[in-house]
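Retro notes (design track)

What went well: tokenization of the new backbones is finally stable.
What didn't: we kept losing track of which sequence belonged to which structure.
Fix going forward: every design gets posted as structure first, then sequence, in one message. First example under the new rule, 245 residues:
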């Protein structure tokens, strides 16, 4: 009768097994432990008018263990307001979190669309900030100026933003309106005194330098003119006001 083979016993290496079990136990503890729950959140950079919305977002995360809170989800919800340019959310295992927000900087308003502003790159966004001191941009005729339509428009928003910033540094205390008209080209008005015609967008900075040069030579130029034409910046022309001596 053949002899039965004895099974060879293999000794288990309990070290790695116990280590992995400990890691799994700690991970599960962090994931479910109320000790790591978000209790205090610091908000940096949010506009006063947006505080209620931001607090609603954060209230949804308070009380959750830190590991269960998704920074990307919080950031995505914060970015739903068009005036928010960036959002960054961080949290630790001690119940503390911070949401840092940066806002778009308005350089102009959009005529006919209350509360709509333009940032330095030409992006349009809604805001409750005071925009009364900014230049007012008149979009090309025929565009639908609901916000959702304006965001996908094809007009020269970036150039309008650039022009707005340049003009505001020169005419800090004047009301400015900017126009990009398909028939008459680009022009702007300074208060109710004078219209300045730029023509097309070419040589924009050259035209603005020409205007500054004219103003430095003649301090009464704006008061005595009804129109200044810079279409050809090397040969600027003007129309004198009829109500000046």
């Amino acid at each position: 009768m053949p002899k039965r083979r004895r099974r060879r016993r293999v000794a288990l290496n309990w070290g790695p097994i116990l280590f992995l079990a400990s890691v799994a136990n700690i991970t599960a503890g962090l994931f479910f432990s109320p000790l790591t729950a978000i209790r205090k959140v610091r908000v940096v950079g949010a506009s006063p008018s947006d505080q209620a919305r931001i607090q609603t977002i954060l209230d949804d995360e308070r009380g959750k263990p830190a590991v269960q809170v998704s920074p990307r989800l919080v950031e995505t919800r914060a970015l739903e307001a068009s005036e928010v340019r960036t959002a960054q959310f961080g949290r630790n295992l001690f119940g503390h979190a911070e949401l840092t927000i940066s806002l778009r900087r308005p350089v102009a308003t959009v005529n006919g669309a209350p509360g709509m502003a333009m940032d330095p790159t030409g992006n349009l966004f809604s805001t409750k900030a005071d925009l009364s001191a900014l230049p007012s941009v008149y979009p090309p005729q025929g565009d639908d100026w609901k916000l959702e339509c304006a965001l996908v428009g094809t007009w020269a928003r970036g150039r309008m933003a650039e022009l707005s910033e340049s003009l505001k540094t020169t005419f800090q205390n004047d009301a400015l309106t900017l126009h990009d008209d398909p028939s008459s080209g680009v022009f702007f008005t300074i208060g109710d005194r004078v219209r300045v015609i730029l023509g097309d967008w070419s040589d924009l900075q050259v035209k603005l330098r020409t205007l500054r040069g004219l103003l430095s030579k003649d301090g009464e130029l704006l008061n005595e003119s009804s129109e200044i034409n810079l279409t050809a910046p090397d040969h600027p022309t003007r129309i004198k006001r009829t109500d000046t001596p």
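Added context from the reviewer: Confidence is low (pLDDT under 50) at residues 23-28.
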